[in-house]
Specification:
By secondary structure, the chain is an all-beta fold. The protein has no helices and 16 strands.
């Protein structure tokens, strides 16, 4: 899963206190919110084939700071058959080289009687995902991602019959092999595991769950830029693969 944000900026009118000049310059106001639309041929996420049908996803976001770093947002998606449904909330802090975010992921596809406000670990469709990213820069174009599920339906049953959080982790390395203008080629590998346990949210044991290649390209249609990405994904844990195409409509 991929995001674009707008900032909240204050604007003022400059005044010359040493002259009587009353000329003013028009300053274009930047809106403090934004909306983005993506269309995907199918939906793969951390090695999961979340939807085998094409989907559309929408990101609505609002900037809380003037420096384009702190944002809150809503992310929702559905497939063209009406089977897959997801509605998430997030808060994010983003810098050019690193980022932190907390996501309330609510994929309620397999929860026909889901309650949006139900966070009981035995029955909820939610899980809280805490994420961190660091990028080493253009000289060494490696990006490291880490995510831990801290609450929700990532659980296991203890010996006394009680339900406990598994605190499953996902870690990914992404390396850019090639770049030319708006085109890039990346390779990536990601693994899922839980400390002190074999089974985790991503598989029956610690393992590589998401590896492959991604090609990014800036597609221009009638002077409108539409970034596209094609990903070939392989999951050795689940022994399947998929090819996904993403078009960023706006």
């Amino acid at each position: 899963m991929a995001m674009l944000w707008l900032c909240l900026c204050l604007h003022g009118k400059a005044q010359d206190t040493t002259t009587a000049n009353t000329d003013t310059a028009t300053v274009k106001k930047q809106v403090p919110f934004g909306i983005n639309l993506q269309v995907r041929s199918l939906y793969v996420w951390r090695g999961f084939k979340v939807s085998n049908a094409p989907i559309a996803d929408v990101d609505m976001h609002y900037y809380l700071t003037k420096d384009k770093t702190f944002t809150v947002g809503l992310w929702g998606a559905g497939d063209f058959t009406g089977n897959y449904k997801e509605f998430d909330y997030y808060i994010a802090y983003t810098k050019p080289r690193y980022a932190f975010s907390i996501w309330d992921v609510n994929n309620f596809t397999d929860f026909p009687n889901s309650n949006l406000f139900n966070y009981n670990p035995r029955s909820t469709s939610h899980f809280i995902d805490v994420r961190a990213m660091y990028n080493f820069g253009d000289r060494f174009p490696l990006t490291v991602n880490w995510a831990t599920i801290v609450l929700g339906r990532d659980t296991h049953v203890k010996s006394d019959g009680d339900v406990s959080n598994s605190y499953s982790n996902y870690s990914e390395l992404d390396y850019r092999l090639w770049k030319d203008g708006g085109s890039e080629l990346h390779i990536f590998v990601g693994g899922g595991f839980a400390f002190g346990r074999q089974a985790n949210f991503y598989g029956s044991k610690p393992n590589i769950v998401n590896t492959g290649i991604t090609i990014n390209k800036d597609l221009v249609v009638f002077k409108h830029h539409m970034p596209v990405a094609a990903t070939a994904m392989f999951n050795p844990e689940k022994k399947y693969g998929a090819l996904q195409l993403i078009v960023n409509v706006f």
